[in-house]
Structure formats: structure tokens, C-alpha cells
Amino acid sequence: MSSPVVTRFAPSPTGYLHIGGGRTALFNWAYARHTGGKMLLRIEDTDRERSTADAIDAIIEGLTWLGLDWAGEPVSQYGRAERHRQVAEELLAQGKAYRCYCTPEDLEAMRAKAEAEKRPIRYDGTWRDRDPSEAPAGVKPAIRFKAPQQGETVIEDAVQGRVVIPNKDLDDLIILRSDGNPTYNLSVVVDDHDMGVTHIIRGVDHLTNAARQTQIYKAMGWRVPHMSHIPLIHGPDGAKLSKRHGALGVEAYRAMGYLPEAMRNYLARLSWSHGDDEIFSTEQLVEWFDLDAIGKSAARFDFAKLENLNGHYIRHMADDKLLMSFIDFLPHAEGGPAMKAKIDDAMMAKLLRALPGLKERAKTLVELKNGAQFLFAERPLPMDDKARQIIADGGRDVLAGIIPVLTHIANWQAHDLETAVKSHAETAGLKLGKVAQPLRAALTGTATSPGIFDVLEVLGREESLARLSDQAA
Prior knowledge:
By secondary structure, this protein is mainly alpha-helical. It has four domains: 6-76 and 233-300, Rossmann fold (3-Layer(aba) Sandwich); 78-230, HUPs (Rossmann fold), CATH 3.40.50.620; 318-375; 385-472, Orthogonal Bundle (Arc Repressor Mutant, subunit A), CATH 1.10.10. The chain has helices at residues 19-35, 53-66, 81-93, 104-116, 184-194, 207-220, 250-255, 260-268, 282-288, 303-316, 319-329, 336-341, 345-358, 365-376, 385-407, 414-428, 432-444, 452-459, 461-472; strands spanning 6-9, 38-43, 75-76, 97-100, 142-145, 152-157, 161-166, 174-176, 199-203, 226-230, 233-234, 299-300. A three-stranded parallel sheet has the order 1-2-3. Strands 4-5-8 form a three-stranded antiparallel sheet. A two-stranded antiparallel ribbon has the order 6-7. Helix 16 crosses helix 17 (432-444). It starts with 5 loop residues before the first strand and ends with a helix. InterPro entries: aa-tRNA-synth_I_cd-bd, aa-tRNA-synth_I_codon-bd_sub2, aa-tRNA-synth_I_CS, aa_tRNA-synth_I_cd-bd_sf, Glu-tRNA-ligase_bac/mito, Glu/Gln-tRNA-synth, Glu/Gln-tRNA-synth_Ib_cat-dom, GluQ/Sye. Keywords: Aminoacyl-tRNA synthetase, ATP-binding, Cytoplasm, Ligase, Nucleotide-binding, Protein biosynthesis. One of its GO terms (cellular component) is cytosol.
């Protein structure tokens, strides 16, 4: 019976959770869910100068917003340094590692010689077989792994296929620095082994590390986890993803008004596919996700596709659920906290009534917020340039004519309001648009909004007539 699948997401807290990290976390999470296993979270915080508490908080908040949970408490790699040192000493005791007394000057000379001879820059094994009794006085040694020099290291990768690296191309890497701090490749192996990780899913840029780590696993007599090295994400132009393409922290996408459901769907389609399916639920992703459907080619990040997908999710989300997502979003949006402070039961009811019209025009929650602005506006309403022009170009007279008609409507519902306005337009010899435009400008302060009769109904009789009277005066 095979052991349960254990994946892990292991970010370095030297910055926020970027979009590539978000996709890696999603793939680990989805595979663990698909197989009935679990995903662990390890914070690789060994770079003490660059690791920050704020970045750790941002990573955890970003994962939580994306809806990706993990088993147990996050593990600090730095907190396990003593265990890493212990394994380095074990390798040393078994003759699978050795003390290297090269000084920085020695290593620089080694580099210069390799460059002069046009050879790859690698450690030349100076201390590999020397007796420590020859060590120079006062030099603190590093511990280097005694890498195999003959043969090949093979990685059977679920995405990249069979990867063969000649051992002559891999030098004796440092596993414990002269100051006693363990290095990345040792720490990762020890942590993955001790945490029971069965499947490693990470970026293809770790493929060379995978060879070195495989050698350490075998030297310790440990089982090598299944490996899947997923392609990187590029911009729409095929260049390496940069900030101008969208290489931003996950929190930036939240502030830009993307729904976590849409982000999960979009990120899943970057290098993974299920036939021609473009839009699918998280439940379907979990049901379908497998490693053999991940392609080798770099994915291309496309804001336009993400925005269109997000618009689909907004339009098809149940209004009550969308309202909760909108309210959760407001603290992260420009001007959002002030709007959220105005949400009471009455405003909740107005928003819920307005959502069917608002969401048809919105691709992001920012656009939804901008569309809903008229509900929160206080009289006298601020007007944009187009709205101001509509009022000035005869709109004022139109409003003066329609106000008495609206005042006498008994049933303030969109259908009855529409009937009355159309009747008035016909009587006045005006096209409906010539009446609707000034109404929209006066009621919302803009030239675009949901259906004007829905706007009238949502605002209510008293507020609507007051706004119209402000502009008719």
C-alpha cells in the first residue's frame, strides 16, 4: 500500500507571494486534494538579512485569500538549523562529506584560473582527499558534500521526463558554511525528508538543485521524493515575467479587484489543462488535476484573459455571495474603507438590489465599486465632465419636465417608472435617450450606469427626487 501523498509549498519570505509562487502553491494544493493527501507549508527563512516578518504575514495572507489551506502549522526552516547541522556532521562521519579550508582568496584564484583556461567555474576538490592535519592555522572550515565524480544522476521528472546530469558537471557543494550555517540544498533535503514529503512540485529553475539534492538523499539512504518541475510563467510577449507583465504580489491582484475563484481558475490554466476546458470550478480542478497534464512549455500571463475570466465569475456569481466578496474587497481598494464604513442594513439591501445591473458591466470588483459609487454619494452629487455637459446641454429642462411625472407615481418600481418615463417622452416628442441621459447624469453623476429605471428603484423615491431637483434648479 502506497503512502499518502504529502506535498509542500516552500516560499522564501524575502518579498511578497508573487504570482508564480501562487501557481506553485495551487498545483501543490490541487494535487494533494486530488489524491486525498495533504499540503504542508514551510517558510524558507534562512536568509536572515532579507527574510522579514511582514513578508511571512503577506505570504500567509496571500495563500489564505487564494483559498489554499495547508495541514498543521507553518514550519520555519531557520528554526530547524540545528537538525541540518546534525545531518552535515553525519555525512562527515560517514566519509560522504569533508572539511574544506579554502579561504575566499583561494576560491577567487580557483575562479580566475578556470576563467583563464575557459573551463566551467567549479570547486576543484582541493580538500576532498587531503588530511585535515594539513589545515592552515586560524581558518574555519566549511563542510562540503563529497559528490560522486563518475556516472550520472538521473531525475525521473513527472513533467520534464527523464533528466540525466553527468556527475562530472556537479562539484562538491558546501552544505555547512564556515560560520556554521547550513546551505539551501542541505536544508531542503533534510526538511522534505523529516516532514514526510512524497511529491515535490516546484519551478523548473530548481532542476539543477534537484540533481544535487538527489545525491544528498542517496548519500543519507533516504527515499527520493517524486519530482515535478513546472515551467516558468512568461509575459504575453514571451519574455521573462516582469512587473510590467504582472509579476506582482498576490495582494496586488486582490486590490485590483480580482476574485480568488477566478485567480484559481486562471492560474490553474497556466501550463496545465483539461482538454479544452477554460472555465471550471475549484471542485472540478481538484477532481481533474494530475501531474501528467502539466505541459513543458512556459506559460504566458495575459491580463486581458484574466480580466475577461474575472468578469465571467462576477456575472455568474450569486448576488448574495458576490456582495460578501465585494464587502471583503473594500478594505483593500482605494477609497474602499470609507465606502465600507457607510454599509449598514439599508445600504446592504440597496447593494443587493443594484447588483444584477452593476455586475453586467464589471470585469473587476474595482469596476463594481466604481459602478456602485452613486449609491454611496451624498448630495449635492459630484458630477463628472460628461454628466455636467449633459445637464448643461438641455438636460436641466428635461429634468424639470419629468420631476412632476415621477412625483405622482404610486408604485416606485422599475416597470412602472419605465412606463411613466416612456409615456412622458412620447408626449414631449422626445426620444427615450434624451430623457434617460439627463436622468442618469443627475442620479449618478456619470454618463454610464446600470439601467436607469433600476437606478431609480434602488435609490428610492425620496433620494431620487432630491437628486433630480438638485440638478433641475
